[in-house]
Amino acid sequence: MSGKVTNGAGGSGDGGDGSEGTPELDAAFFARWMTAAADAVAREADRLTELDSAIGDSDHGGNMRRGFEAVREELGEEVPATPGAVLMTAGRKLVSTVGGASGPLYGTLLRRAGKALGSAERVSREELAGALRTGIDAVAQLGGAVAGDKTMLDALFPAVEALADSGGKDFEAARTAAEQGAEETVPLQARKGRASYLGERSIGHQDPGATSAALLVAALAEADTAVEPEGDADGTGSAQGGSGGSE
Amino acid sequence: MRMLINVPESVVPDALRGMAAAHPELTVDVDRRVVMRRDAPVDGKVALVSGGGSGHEPLHGGFVGPGMLDAACPGEIFTSPVPDQMVAAAAAVDSGEGVLFIVKNYTGDVLNFDMAAELAEDEGVRIGKVLVEDDVAVTDSTHTAGRRGTGATLFVEKIAGALAAEGAPLEQVEAVARQVAGSSRSFGVALSPCSTPAKGGPMFELPPGELELGVGIHGEPGRERRAMMTAGEIADFAVDAVLEDLQPEEPVLALVNGMGATPLLELYGFCGEVHRVLAERRIPVARTLVGNYVTSLDMAGASVTLCRADEELLRLWDAPVRTPGLRWGV
C-alpha cells in the first residue's frame, strides 16, 4: 500500500507509523477543498471586508469572493484529473480574477503547491503537507514578508507546522493553528502591504489576509470530514472519514 | 451616501461603457477591461501601458491617446488589475518596438505587473518597467511596503509618452521615465474621507475640523492628523515636506492636484499659496498644472507634486498631447 511514497517536497523523513504516505487523496478531494473554500469565503466575505476597512481599503471580501466563485465555476465544469492540476487550475483562476496583492499571493500558493504535487493521481497527506509548505514558502518569497509582519503568512506558517507535526494527518490541528495565528495578528504592527502605511495604527486589528488564509485551511478540514461521493478510497486511519452530514 | 451609480458591482464596467461612448478615438474593451488608442499599435513607436485600481480618474484611462499612454488597464475600485489585462494590452499595442509598463508602487500593482511582464515576454513582447514611488509622506523603509506612487505618475506618463511619440527606442523611453520618477516627489492632504461604492460610506473616519497630513490616494493615513489649517499653512507644510526630500537645483514642474471633491476655486487658491512658498524658498516654477488628475473618488483635499525639470524634460512636457484628461498643442 504505502509503496508508492514519493518523497514530497518537504523530505522531512521522520519515521511515520503504519499509514505513512498512503496516497489516499484524489482530485475529487482537492476539488472539495476548493469548493469548501469558496463556501467559506462567500459566508465570511462581509467579515473580511469589515476587517479590511479597519486597516485596508474595504475590498478583501469582495475580491476573494469573486475569485473563489470563479474557481468554483471552473471546477464545476470539469475537475482536472490530478490533485496537482486542481490546485494549479484554481491558482491560475485566482490570479486572473482577484486582483490586488491577494490574487498573485493566493494564486502562487495554490499553483506552487499544485506543481509540487506533480502528476500523481493520488497523493498522501504527507505529500499535501509538503506541497503546502512549498507554496507557502513561495508566497513568503513573492511578498517579501516574514512571520509576524501581520500578513496571511501568520495563519499559514502555524497551520503547516501543525500539519507537519502530525505527519500531515491532522487537518483539524492545522485549522486550529491557522485560526489562532489569525487571531494573534491583532496586537501586531503591519510591515507589509497597504496596512503597513498605518504604522502603529494597524495594531489592535485582526489582519484580513490572515483571516482569509485561515478560511482556506479550515476548508481543508471541512473537505476531509465531508462525505465522499463513492467512499472507496480506503481512508485507513482517518477517524473522521465519512462521518456523515456534508454540511 | 448618495452615489450616481446603478449597482456597486457594475461601477467599473458602467464607466468603461461611458468612456467608449464619449471617446470614439479610443477602443474600450469592457470585458477584458482594457482602454486603448484606436490606432494602436502605432508603427515604429514604443508603447506605454499603465494601469491600477479604479477610483483615481482620469488616471489612467483618461491619459490614453497620442503623446501619452497607448493602453490602460483599470482594476476594480482601489484594486490592482489582473495580469491578463496587461498581457492583453501589451499584445494589442506592441508594434514590435516594445512596451513600457508604468507601475505605481503598491504591493498588488507590482505583483500583477511583474506576472504580466513575465507572461508577455513569454509571448515575445519586449517589456520595460518603471516604478513610480513619489509620496514622501511614507518613508521608504523595511517597515512599510515603501513609498506610494501618486501624482508623479502623470509626469512619467506625459513625458515618457512624448519621447515615445518621437520614435525613441524602449531603452531611452524607460530611462526618461525613470529620470522623471526619480526627480518627482509628492505630498497630499485629506479634508474628508472617500467613500467606495461597495462600502457605501466613508472608508475611514476623519472627525470634522481635522485633516490628515500625508494622505495616500486610497485614503491611507500619512504622517499625522491635525486641527484644520488654512490653505497657506497646508501649502507650507506640503511644499516643505516635498522639498526636504527633493532639494531641487533646477526649476520645477508643479502639479497642484485635487483629490476629487475639492472645487477648482479652492485648488487655484491653494496653487497660489504653493507658488508663494516656492518663491520664498527661491525655487523657480517652470510649469504648473492645476486640476483633478490623480483622484481618490470623492475625497476632499489636494496634493502637490514637484519634479526637477531640465530643458529636455520641459520640452517633452510641452510636446502635444491628446487624451480625454490632458490635451494641449494639438
TrEMBL record, chain B:
Its EC number is 2.7.1.121. One of its GO terms (molecular function) is phosphoenolpyruvate-glycerone phosphotransferase activity. PROSITE patterns: DHAK. Keywords: Kinase, Transferase. Pfam families: Dak1. It is an enzyme of class 2 (transferase). It comes from the Bacteria. Coiled coil: none annotated. InterPro entries: DhaK_1, DhaK_dom, Dihydroxyacetone_Kinase. Residues 7-328 form the DhaK domain. This is Dihydroxyacetone kinase subunit DhaK.
